[in-house]
Amino acid sequence: MHMCIQRIMQYLLLVAGFLALSFPVASFAANPDKVEFKKEGKVVKTMSVDDLRALAPERSLEVFEPHERRNWVYRVLPARAVFDKVFGKDWEKAREIIFTALDGFKPSVPVKKFLRHEGYFAFANGDGGLFTLTNKLQNNEVATLGPLYLVWDNIGSKELLETWISDMPYQIKTIDLKMKEPFPNMLPSAASSEQARRGFDHFRTHCVACHTINGDGGGKAPELNYPESVVEYIKPEYLKRWILAPQTIRYNTPMPALAEEISNREKVATEIIAYLKAMGDAKRAPPENPEDTSR
Ligand code: HEC
């Protein structure tokens, strides 16, 4: 009798294991198909990809895919047309648009960038295959891109290629229009040096999507300033090397190096460190109830 129950258990385990192995795509289905559009943190519309496809003309677009370091074709909707329909023309007067991804990546893209460059929401692979990519910058992790993935008509644009992956969130679940500075806790004080201010601009472009300073910023990677700043516990020469080539310090770290495409990378890294030092003298406890608790 005992033997028999054991056999049944073994059999069940085998079946469970087999099911788990044969349906690895189950995690792909976990991405919700709806995107929340917000103004100042309040939801104004929740739309599925099909709803959005009914609003704006779709097309195929070839982009340089920095996560895979090659060109790739996606099916896309023009971002400006989507914003016009969802928010009304007034979105152009906003200051920043914050995208929150399922994995915590949270870039803040200046509205000006959307007015100057062609941004698109990709919703499918151009070749009809799975809507995924292999993220070479993060240990070749296979990432699902849906429901929406923000891409840019970046081929031949030095400026767009220099921003690299910073403004390319995938798995977008919320799009939040901000009328004023969205990250007040990470601003350097008016008294800080020119170098630190330039470092802040670089930090906003290249780091904020993943990291927080005093609680403000993205949720994909650790806080860098509170309660102890990284400039206090990481030796200066290692900090710079970490920013330029993290994998030469920690094998297989998921942090990507500052993009090779950036001119003056060393100078950019030095300025970012000047900014981090300035913030080390301006610690503030992260807000207790951050507006976006959903990440
Ligand atoms: C795509 C997300 C991403 C971006 C962009 C990013 N980082 Fe990171 N960063 C990480 C992750 C993930 C870790 C944790 C890595 C680990 O533990 O190996 C990390 C760790 C760090 C650490 C070490 C923190 C500690 O306490 O050990 C520092 C310092 C750092 N990042 C600075 C930066 C700076 C400066 C930038 C911008 C130039 C930046 N990061 C951009 C994801 C990112």
UniProtKB/TrEMBL annotation:
<keyword id="KW-0479">Metal-binding</keyword>
<feature type="signal peptide">
    <location>
        <begin position="1"/>
        <end position="29"/>
    </location>
</feature>
<keyword id="KW-0732">Signal</keyword>
<dbReference type="InterPro" id="IPR036909">
    <property type="entry name" value="Cyt_c-like_dom_sf"/>
</dbReference>
<dbReference type="GO" id="GO:0009055">
    <property type="term" value="F:electron transfer activity"/>
</dbReference>
<dbReference type="InterPro" id="IPR009056">
    <property type="entry name" value="Cyt_c-like_dom"/>
</dbReference>
<dbReference type="GO" id="GO:0046872">
    <property type="term" value="F:metal ion binding"/>
</dbReference>
<feature type="domain" description="Cytochrome c">
    <location>
        <begin position="194"/>
        <end position="280"/>
    </location>
</feature>
<keyword id="KW-0408">Iron</keyword>
<protein>
    <submittedName>
        <fullName>Cytochrome c, class I</fullName>
    </submittedName>
</protein>
<keyword id="KW-0349">Heme</keyword>
<dbReference type="Pfam" id="PF13442">
    <property type="entry name" value="Cytochrome_CBB3"/>
</dbReference>
<dbReference type="GO" id="GO:0020037">
    <property type="term" value="F:heme binding"/>
</dbReference>
